[in-house]
Amino acid sequence: MRNPLADKIVDIKPSGIRKFFDIVNEMEDAISLGVGEPDFDTPWHIRDEGIYSLEKGRTFYTSNSGLKELRTEITKYIKRTQGVAYDAAHEVLVTVGGSEAIDIALRAMINPGEEVLIPQPSYVSYEPCAILADAKPVIIELKEENEFRLTAQELRDAITDKTKVLILPFPNNPTGAIMEKEDLEAIAEVIREKDIFVISDEIYSELSYKGKHVSIVSLPGMQERTVLINGFSKSYAMTGWRLGYACAPAVIMEQMTKIHQFAIMCAPTTSQYAAVEALRNGDDDVANMREAYNQRRRFLMHTFKELGLQCFEPYGAFYVFPCIKEFGMSSDEFAERLLHEEKVAVVPGTAFGDCGEGFLRISYAYSLENLKIAMDKIGNFIGRLREEKK
Amino acid sequence: MREQILSIIEKNSRIDIKELAVILGVEEIDIANELKALEEEGVICGYHTMIDWEKTSIEKVTALIEVRITPQRGQGYDNIAERIYKYPEVNSVYLISGGYDLLVTLDGKSLKAVSSFVSDKLSTLDGVLSTATHFILKKYKDHGTILTKKYEDTREKVTP
Question: B157 lies in a domain?
Fold first, then answer.
């Protein structure tokens, strides 16, 4: 029989997280700090709208771009948070999670061989999606000394004649890094000068703990060269609903919508009705969850300090990214030993790019009680490691 | 800070000052001063424990009693409310808008104890026109806490 597979996909490495997931899953009583989704339930009024839409028999396809009501609410949301206007009819697309938006944005913009800049450590799907879109992924290794922000110099150094798109993943998974307005202004200047485009993945935008999140689309001349991606998963604790969206200039959006139309048809209808409710009446829920995350974040930073574990202070998402280089072992090794010896699961930084070596991703999408138990165990573990080293 | 402290200790009064200071990102001394002020002002009126008595072997019944009363000149409802709340078995007394005037909640050892309280003490008070007693059969949720189900983390253990 002939080989049924495409080389392009076979050559892509499976996600580093997968391997770890399998080990953790076999351990019954492991405490996991490895989850990339909120611990809150979707607020009841939002779930209730989803249920109500089913009761009313709203079980058909929506338009390809998504419910008009929802697209309108999305434009209002961006207007009130970023002061930027989008045309709900031609510049907004409701997608199956932010993930789909990343995929189709790349496919809509890339010609074979063009380069996509991917700052790492970052979410696991950018690189594979770029490869599937026939792009050449070019990794920018972010540095702890810059708090894992992207600097103008790093960007400038990575740009070539073939560079087409920069992926901008802030607030960042796994580092928790944010880009503040000044940081964005510095890179926007390079982006405009070099005439490249941006795919800005702002899925964690509502989880910013140092002032309000600033989107790059709010800077002069950037809306016209940016695909803004956001969604409902993190802000409204709606991961399982699979609902995200993209906003982009009509010329890009027209092509993205074409791919979406043929590959997906439309995002889940029930989820779309629920999302309308989320945007209309969900601000308080978001504020409450943000406050809870922020309390846990402060608790973790305080505990790391007590333990003498080096960690820059992250101001976004729900991750901390401590450095474990002092122990002289790889992230993988550390995470595996921590799991076997203390039954605490964290994700090795290398799952998010080679430059995540020497770091761990710890999620604080867990109750404080849970985090306290886990931190005690991590404290025991690193105490032992330091003893061993003596 | 006041609002944050209150919303945290409303759910967990056992949290210590040190931990409050850590999670709110302020100094311990500021928390201590604020708590003291809140107690002095009577904003914080006590620290209680939520108990699901159902799960113990102790028999207890809780009743909600709607009370209609005749307000008194110059005193309104306050005088009668005070006479009612002075009974130690009375848990709470609220003045309510709508079809009746006072809502009284009551913990008793048995149905009989509650009904004798209502018939002997409550309904015979001057100014009480009528009472309607409702017994609580099951508590699903109390003080924002769901009592019938335990939280279960159903997420996948590791996700990107």
Answer: no
Nearest residue of A to residue B25 by CA position? Answer: A298
Selection from B159, B128, B31 nearest residue A99 by Cα: B159
Structure tokens belonging to residue A355:
């430059």
Digit-coded pLDDT (tens) for B88-101: 999 999 999 999 99
* Residue B146, domain member (yes or no): no
pTM above 0.80, yes or no: yes
Give a yes or no: residue B156 inside a domain. Answer: no
Asked whether A362 and A351 are in contact (CB, 8 A), the reply is no
In the CATH hierarchy, which top-level class contains the domain A57-281? alpha beta
Is A7-42+284-385 assigned to CATH 3.40.47.10? Answer: no
- List the beta bridge partners of residue A229: A201, A246
- The mean pLDDT value for A378-384 works out to 98
Task: Tell me, yes or no, whether B76 and B117 share the same domain.
Answer: yes
Contacting residues for A23 by C-beta, under 8 A, at least 6 apart: A336, A339
**Model ipTM?**
0.87
Which of B4, B8, B150, B157 to mutate to probe the A interface, most A CBs <10 Å?
B157
Residues B24, A295: C-beta atoms closer than 8 Å: yes
Q: Does residue A21 carry a pLDDT above 90?
A: no
The owner of tokens 């839409």 is A53
Indicate the pLDDT class of residue A20, thresholds 50, 70 and 90. Answer: confident
Containing structural domain, residue B106: 53-137
CA–CA dist A339, A323 (Å, integer): 17
Pairwise CB contact (< 8 Å): B19 & A299: yes
Number of domains in chain B: 2
pLDDT digits (tens, 9 = 90+) for B38-55: 999 999 999 999 999 889
Beta-carbon separation of B158 and A34 below 8 A: yes
DSSP state of A148: T
Mean pLDDT of A92-109: 98
DSSP B117: I
Domain boundaries defined on chain A: 7-42+284-385, 57-281
Instruction: Give, as one character, the DSSP assignment of residue B88.
Output: T
A229: nearest Cα among A39, A62, A96? A96
Minimal C-alpha gap between B24 and chain A (Å): 6
Q: Which of A19, A175, A305, A368 to mutate to test the interface with B (most CBs of B within 10 A)?
A: A368
